[in-house]
Amino acid sequence: MSFYSFSHYKFFRRCSIAFAFSLTLVFVANSLTPQTQATPIQCNKDPYKQLNLILNLNGTVTRPNKPPESPPASDPNLNTLVLSKDLSINQSKGTWARIYLPRAALDRGYKLPLIVFFHGGGFIYLSAASTIFHEFCFNMAHNVHAVVASIEYRLAPEHRLPAAYDDAMEALHWIKTNQNDWLTEYVDYSNVFLMGSSAGGNIAYIAGLRAAAENDHRIPKIKGLILVQPFFSGTHMTNSERRLVNEPHLALCNNYALWELSLPVGVDRDHEYCNPTVGNGPARLKIIQRLGWWVLVTGCSGDPLVDRQVQLVRLMQRNGVRVVGHFTTGDYHGIQDTEPLKARELYGVMKTFISAIN
């Protein structure tokens, strides 16, 4: 069940875009109203052990179990619905992009929207080559009918924030100037979306704010942001965090440990990288509003972070941003990475969102 119906959304758009956005949050259940509470929690277990991380004295971590990875497949003679290949962005930083091209575009020669995707993993884990994200982007390119550029960014704590945001911005500059045939021949550079899931949603959001502030010819023309269960936090607990404090997919102590390893040394979770409601965060949304970007935020009631996601939607709405909140009941954080049916449902939401604003 969705708290915001896209059938309503499409109807409202035909009548009046402004009216549609004014009613976006009417469909968000009152149970998701974010109300922060200051009582701290006690972490009785070692969160780093639970996260399968070994802390090293030099500030790095050892990641004992590397998840499976998948190679790209760029040969057009392959019997595959989507081709993929890796392109280097910055060799000195080890950053690169995996490009996914639907075969239909290759065969028919027309241009498609570009989705610039940032993977999840708490800023600490995983890669654009990780099998779960390779399969997700492969299927997204096919189902949404878009070119996907999945960005390999540097991980914390070896490269604490804002390193991932810097890599995201460099990737946007690289996309605009890269002369690879897949990008120049099949991408509509006036129809670009920044997207991420979990920590990747955080990167897409912060990079989006930076890109909006620059607003120059060095980056593609961005139409909007797609934030899938974006990863945010703060020093005070929300109701959903308290209710789901030990949720096995994202226990709150593990969440806090990921932020401790990712944020700049010496700051707390009320830093603007982590909490979009503090500092200049709300004011920076005015730039997105002036540019006319659209934003899709998705979440679910089984995610401890859902109240923060709802809070972000409301913050955007108060600042005049054209935002759609799509929230479902049940489920859990990262469900689209492990359950193909949920991923297909998300692709449908995305396709409706993109087609409705074009």
Features:
single chain; about 350 residues; alpha/beta; Rossmann fold; eight-stranded mixed beta sheet; two-stranded antiparallel ribbon; 14 helices; about 20% strand; globular; disordered N terminus
The CATH topology annotation reads as Rossmann fold
Overall CATH architecture = 3-Layer(aba) Sandwich
Provide the succession of SSEs.
Answer: HHHEEEEHEHEHHEHEHHHEHEHH
The total tally of domains equals: 1
CATH class: Alpha Beta
Can you tell me the CATH superfamily? Answer: Alpha/Beta hydrolase fold, catalytic domain
Query: How would you sum up the global shape?
Result: globular
Provide the β-strand percentage band: 15-25%
Structure at a glance:
The chain has 358 residues and is of the alpha/beta class.
How does this model look, in words?
With about 350 residues, the protein is of the alpha/beta class. Helices cover about 40% and strands about 20% of the residues. It has a single domain (about 5-30, about 45-355), classed as Rossmann fold. The chain has helices at about 5-15, 15-20, 45-50, 105-110, 130-145, 165-175, 180-185, 200-215, 240-245, 250-260, 280-290, 305-320, 335-340, 340-355; strands at about 55, 60, 80-90, 95-100, 110-120, 145-150, 185-195, 220-230, 295-300, 320-330. The strands form two sheets. An eight-stranded mixed β-sheet has the order 3-4-6-5-7-8-9-10, with helices on both faces. The chain has a two-stranded antiparallel sheet with strand order 1-2. A hairpin with a 4-residue loop joins β3 (about 80-90) and β4. Residues about 1-35 have low confidence and may be disordered.
